[in-house]
């Protein structure tokens, strides 16, 4: 498998031609149509869906939001055993995520919040502002009510369902702002996304080891608290300030936000959960329920719908994070200037091509898109074991292919000069499964030290860098030393660089006839690739 310029260029032009001409709406206009659709579904006894969860792929909605990220600060305590990842420690970590993903969804079902995504040890939720004047203090209070409800349900579930095995500590980041909502998924693989600085900033606030609730200055201003500046935002919000803004009552004493009696609410949620376990509809958390098996590469053959706790994968592989640096500022400028349609069309093409490179060119498997970032898995090997060296070689070639395809996207789409592509790669044993509340609401997950470290490596990169982690570097082909520094970093890396360095011949270099048939005539023909003798 290899990247080929003519093939990639033809794909990109096809994607550009097929990209939706996005219908951009304000949330209040979208919401009127959504309410009518939900009323019709109710009359026909069809299941409802949360607002913006299953948007048509051709729609983009501009919405004011409260963005909430909930991270487990002591996650590594559960996925490591004496400092090592083992099958037993991964089984325990997956049960931990299964418990807390389920707790989050159960709290979401009775709150104003809706789930955006679960990712590793993080929950991403959002509360939507129905008004036209920006996020109000009332909408922010709904977000704090969800946070309180989630923590209560999570603590009770751990205590009563898991016999206090997990006792996770949470770090919660909250920001408010205008975002663009789109959806990249289909069927049971919905991928709602909120693009904008508020989502990114909430994620950064949730990133750290100290538990507590951390909010932006925009949130502090709504709460009428003293603003602290960017350098001091990582100061946790006091319990008193949270309590003052978690819920309110109307004149009759009824709760406006949250629930009237949180203790009774929590007991009811957990009692219902226990009944599902008794009926066999949900696993007993005190009884290990994850069963792992090796999956022969290529990983592109993985069908997430076939996975479950009892049918999970665990194997050595390379985790890759590839993030568009500068895209958040780009989308914020698009919102301000009215250029949303072009910005989301460009992202549609770029992400689709990135998935093509990962899955079609290098046999990897996308886990999910996280905003403007793709998380993917790659491996080479036999029916019984992973070839680690070849896996790192293929993953590095894939990173080069992503950079080369991104360069073509910028050339074809135009006006993307401000964007870069940062990529992190790490090797390690990784479990893959589908977990969470139930049915279609369950989510795919790949979570290990390798996945966490590759995400951090991507964050460490400059605008267009590639960085390999220490495990990947230990087994990487020696020839890659010509491209990487001692820390495993390259400031820029395209497919030609890697192919020449590894003496890898490109897969079926396209003939001029192929290029003429698939690429418009005004586009420069692909340059030749050379193999070292």
TrEMBL record:
Any GO molecular function: adenylate cyclase activity
GO biological process, one term: intracellular signal transduction
Gene3D superfamilies per UniProt: Nucleotide cyclase (3.30.70.1230)
Membrane-crossing residue ranges in chain numbering: none
Name of the protein in its database record: Uncharacterized protein
């Amino acid at each position: 498998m290899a990247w080929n310029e003519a093939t990639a260029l033809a794909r990109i032009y096809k994607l550009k031609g097929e990209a939706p001409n996005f219908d951009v709406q304000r949330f209040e206009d979208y919401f009127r149509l959504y309410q009518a659709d939900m009323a019709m579904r109710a009359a026909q006894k069809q299941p409802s869906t949360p607002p913006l969860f299953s948007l048509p792929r051709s729609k983009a909605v501009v919405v004011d939001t409260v963005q909430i990220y909930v991270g487990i600060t002591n996650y590594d305590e559960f996925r490591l055993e004496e400092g090592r990842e083992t099958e037993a420690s991964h089984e325990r970590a997956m049960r931990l995520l299964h418990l807390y993903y389920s707790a989050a969804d159960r709290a979401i079902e009775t709150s104003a919040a809706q789930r955006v995504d679960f990712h590793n040890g993080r929950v991403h939720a959002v509360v939507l502002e129905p008004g036209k004047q920006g996020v109000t203090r009332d909408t922010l209070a709904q977000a704090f009510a969800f946070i309180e409800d989630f923590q209560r349900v999570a603590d009770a579930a751990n205590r009563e369902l898991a016999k206090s095995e997990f006792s996770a500590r949470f770090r919660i980041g909250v920001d408010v702002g205008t975002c663009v909502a789109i959806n990249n998924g289909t069927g049971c693989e919905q991928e709602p996304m909120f693009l904008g600085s508020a989502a990114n900033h909430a994620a950064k606030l949730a990133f750290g080891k100290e538990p507590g609730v951390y909010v932006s200055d925009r949130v502090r201003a709504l709460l009428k608290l003293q603003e602290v500046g960017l350098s001091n935002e990582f100061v946790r919000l006091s319990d008193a300030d949270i309590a003052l803004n978690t819920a309110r009552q109307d004149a009759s004493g009824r709760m406006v936000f949250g629930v009237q009696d949180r203790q009774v609410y929590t007991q009811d949620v957990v009692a219902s959960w226990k009944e599902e376990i008794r009926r066999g509809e949900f696993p007993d958390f005190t009884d290990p329920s994850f069963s792992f098996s090796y999956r022969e590469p290529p990983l592109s053959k993985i069908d997430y719908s076939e996975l479950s706790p009892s049918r999970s994968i665990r194997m050595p592989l390379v985790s890759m994070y590839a993030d568009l640096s500068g895209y958040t500022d780009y989308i914020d400028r698009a919102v301000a200037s009215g250029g949303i349609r072009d910005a989301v069309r460009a992202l549609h093409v770029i992400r689709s091509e990135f998935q093509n490179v990962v899955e079609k060119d290098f046999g990897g498997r996308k886990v999910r898109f996280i905003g403007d970032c793709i998380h993917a898995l790659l491996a080479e090997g036999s029916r019984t074991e992973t070839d680690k060296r070849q896996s790192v070689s293929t993953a590095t070639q894939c990173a080069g292919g992503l950079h080369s395809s991104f360069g073509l996207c910028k050339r074809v789409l135009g006006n993307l000069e401000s964007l870069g592509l940062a990529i992190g790669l790490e090797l390690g044993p990784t479990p893959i499964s589908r977990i969470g509340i139930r049915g279609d609401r369950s989510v795919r997950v790949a979570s290990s030290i390798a996945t966490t470290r590759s995400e951090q490596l991507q964050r460490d990169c400059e605008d267009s860098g590639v960085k390999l982690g220490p495990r990947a570097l230990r087994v990487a082909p020696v020839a890659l030393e010509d491209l990487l520094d001692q820390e495993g970093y390259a400031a820029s890396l395209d497919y030609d660089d890697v192919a020449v360095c590894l003496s890898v011949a490109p897969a079926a270099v396209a003939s001029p006839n192929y290029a003429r048939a698939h690429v418009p005539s005004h586009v420069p023909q692909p340059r030749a690739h050379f193999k070292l003798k």
